[in-house]
User: What shape does this take?
Amino acid sequence: MTSLLTVEDWVNSQAVFADFLGIKKFVAIIGGSLGGMQVLQWSISFPDRLENAIIIASTARLTAQNIAFNEIARRAIITDKSFHGGDYYSENTFPNIGLSIARMLAHITYLSQDGMTEKFGRNLQEKKDYSFSYEIDFQIESYLRYQGEKFSHKFDANSYLLITRVLDYFDPAGEADGDLVKALKVVKAKFLLVSFTSDWRFSPSHSKELVSALLENNVQVSYSEIKSEYGHDSFLLEDPEYHELIRVFFSNML
Assistant: This one.
């Protein structure tokens, strides 16, 4: 299947919708992970329509490792016998197994080793000894299967494929000879970037690279690296320091 959409396409469509609503400029746009990529694209595509950009646990481009995770997830879905080349609805079926495996893999990347150790360790699931079979023995196995099965009944497989490709293709520097500093020359917004110490999907180094490129363009940037043991999912959780940081940044806009 071929992806026909990019982050830039999404942002362009959002701008059209904003026009329809009569919104000429945004005081702020905030987003985490893939949402943060859209915020960055807004600052590039429509520099005169954005005053403040808040990017959380995100990146200016995926690493080879991240692309690799996405490819494994896609293969799990596409090779499911119920996928039918993406035309599964006409076959009255759904690639639940492939989508479930894709979600299990992705979910691991949203967590951290310390967080998983604290929550699950090597604890067994409702038993005192190993079963010496391929059934569930460990709590982490049960948790991942539950997350995968739940997700596979709530999300569309083709949409999952599309989103992973949108992530893969995002690379503003790619249109500027691979130079992120050059790609951000048009930016006018003030920035707040937030990363989390245990996030290895989009590690703090990703945010620092973006901060450095923005500073090279004399853009006003604030950056905070928050200590957390919850991995990439940290940006979705209630953390007093994290929320206070956002609150203060917003209050300074007024």
Summary: The longest strand covers residues 26-32. The beta strands are 26-32, 50-56, 190-196, 221-226. The mean pLDDT is 97. Residues 7-61+171-251 form a domain with the Rossmann fold fold (CATH 3.40.50.1820).
